[in-house]
Amino acid sequence: MEKKIAVLGAGAIGSSVGADLAKAGYDVVLIDQWPAHVEAMKAGGLRVVMPDEDLHTPVRAYHLCEVCCLKRQFDIVLLAAKSHDSCWMAEFITPYLKPDGVLVSVQNSLNDEWVAPIVGFTRDIGCVIELSAEIFTPGLVQRNTTHKGTWFGLGELHGRITPRLRELETIMSCAGRVTLTTNIWGAKWTKLINSSMMLGPMGMLGLNAWEATEPGVLELCIKLGRETTAVGAALGYATETIFGVSADEFMGSTDEILRKNLQTIVTLVGKKARGVVIQDFLKGRRSEADYLNGLIARKGKQAHVPTPANEAVMEIIRQIELGALRA
User: Fold this and answer.
1) Which of the listed residues 182, 211, 245 is the one where a domain comes to its end?
2) Number of neighbouring beta carbons within 10 Å of residue 311
3) Distance CA 80, CA 17 (A)
4) Which domain holds residue 202?
5) Residues 262 and 178 in one domain
6) What does the pLDDT read at residue 268?
7) Do 162 and 226 share a domain, yes or no?
8) Does residue 155 sit in the same domain as residue 18?
9) Is the pLDDT of residue 66 over 80?
10) Does residue 187 contact residue 247 with C-beta atoms inside 8 Å?
11) Domains in the chain: how many in total?
12) What is the C-alpha to C-alpha distance for residues 8 and 105, in angstroms, rounded to an integer?
């Protein structure tokens, strides 16, 4: 029987993945809280503009308030919301998730820590994603990474490779390259290292992603990544190669690995890419930096590892969100 799939949170990432699933012929619906975007998708489908492709496909889109009328339960829910929306959205969708269904956190940060207790640990599959995109116009997504440059790392929270993980690998392969891992927690922390260097500081400075490797900025990014690496090591996370690159490409000292990490991501996303934090500032809304640099600072306190750079970045971002400073 064909799997029933829901993309919960049809922002830039959710819409990009949802459009690919729809084009591939999967039974997928997109659910979002932005009324104008949902109405645009209902009326004219979803357009995703990529560096090498302009995809325009019909999709089935629903407002949150319409989910109760769908009279269906889902086999797979791809949660693609902001981290601060994870808990209430997980509570919202749980009644519509089949008893043997799975929720996949297609998000930044360590959302599985707080989502799994809601949906159940056996119904949560971890995901690490590299896909740069943005949406400012209803029904229209600018996707900066091609399908070849997009990558998903999928893993069971218990670390085993299961038949349902293999099935999900096949489904998600229409949106990008897929790697299965037995160390999803380590992979997610490794992505968090990257996010701490790229998303918060680039938003704070008002810079595009590629500028992370510029002199002066690079040193700050490396300092943030060094702190995040130390916190992860103290908490017992074993770092994992991500973005689909080989382990040999990430050999070297901590600073060398961090530089390679930054260069890899900058190459994948291109010069047009803007991180999610700066996108949130441009939209005048709360960013998820508290679940990135802020989370690292909190985890650092738990592990008794100093994180002054992450704390400083988070404090400046708080002041920007309050309107006391400008990015």
Assistant:
1) 182
2) 18
3) 9
4) 186-322
5) no
6) 78
7) no
8) yes
9) yes
10) no
11) 2
12) 10
Chain mean position to CA 24? 22
Q: 149: part of which helix (H) or strand (E)?
A: none
The Cα–Cα gap between 261 and 185 comes to 18
- Residues 195, 90 share a domain: no
Torsion angle of the four alpha carbons 240, 256, 143, 52, in this order, in degrees rounded to the nearest 10: -110
Q: Are residues 128 and 210 in the same domain?
A: no
Q: Are residues 196 and 303 located together in one domain of the fold?
A: yes
Summarised one tens digit per residue, pLDDT across range 105-164 is 999 999 999 999 999 999 999 999 999 999 999 999 999 999 999 999 999 999 999 999
Residue 239 belongs to domain with CATH number = 1.10.1040.10
The DSSP annotation for 19-43 comes to: HHHHHTT-EEEEEES-HHHHHHHHH
Domain shared by 130 and 239, yes or no: no
- Chain position carrying tokens 């060398």: 256
Name the DSSP class of 11. S
Final residue of a structural domain among 162, 182, 202: 182
* Residue-level pLDDT at 245: 61
Do 160 and 204 lie in one domain? The reply is: no
247: number of Cβ within 10 Å: 8
In a domain, 327, yes or no: no
Question: Of 254 and 122, which is predicted with more confidence?
Answer: 122
134 beta partners: 142
Q: Which residues of the chain form beta strands (DSSP E)? A: 4-8, 27-32, 46-50, 53-57, 60-63, 74-79, 97-105, 124-130, 133-137, 140-143, 151-156, 177-180
pTM value > 0.85: yes
Task: Assign 228 to helix, strand or coil.
Answer: helix
Dihedral angle of Cα 266, 296, 125, 267, to the nearest 10 degrees: 0
Distance CA 307, CA 70 (A): 47
